[in-house]
Every structure is written in structure tokens, then in C-alpha cells.
Design brief:
coiled coil; mainly alpha; about 90 residues; rod-shaped
Length: about 90
């Protein structure tokens, strides 16, 4: 009997207000979650761009290292060839 009195004491439309508040709260939560997903997607795109830039820089450095090593090899080869050339001709500086 107390339950029926509580229902009578409740103002008209109170039950529907409670469900509206719940739906408004869940709509707000959905909007917040959508914003968070967009934020995380943006951060992911930034991280991917950063990673791509770093990978490109690593590739540049690897190419530079290879070029430097080749230059060293060619320098050494050229020294050897020139010393061999001058030795064959007897014109080497000591």
C-alpha cells in the first residue's frame, strides 16, 4: 500500500522527467564519447605523420651513410690507384 501512496504523491509527469533526464544524460555521454574518439583519431593521425617523417629521415641518413662509405671507398681506391700509377712511373713523392 505504501508503494501506491508513493506513486500518488509523485507529481504528475515525474516518471517521464526521470526517463528524459536519463536519455539526456546518455545523449550527452554519446556526444562526449564522439568528441573523445575524434580527438584520439586526430592524435593517431599526428602520430602517423610523425612516424612517416621519422622513417623518411632515417632513410635519408642511411643513404647519406652509404654515400659517405662509397666516397671513402672511392677515395681509398683512388689513392691506391694513384700511388700505383706513380710507383709504376717512378714519380711518387715520399
Amino acid at each position: 500500500m505504501e508503494a501506491s501512496l508513493a506513486a500518488v504523491d509523485r507529481p504528475r509527469g515525474a516518471a517521464s522527467n526521470t526517463s528524459n533526464e536519463g536519455s539526456v544524460g546518455s545523449v550527452n555521454m554519446v556526444l562526449i564519447l564522439k568528441q573523445e574518439v575524434k580527438h584520439l583519431q586526430h592524435k593517431l593521425e599526428e602520430a602517423r605523420a610523425d612516424l612517416n617523417a621519422k622513417e623518411a629521415r632515417i632513410q635519408e641518413l642511411e643513404y647519406s651513410k652509404i654515400e659517405y662509405e662509397f666516397e671513402g671507398i672511392f677515395r681509398e681506391r683512388s689513392k691506391l690507384e694513384s700511388s700505383t700509377w706513380c710507383q709504376e712511373r717512378g714519380v711518387c713523392r715520399q
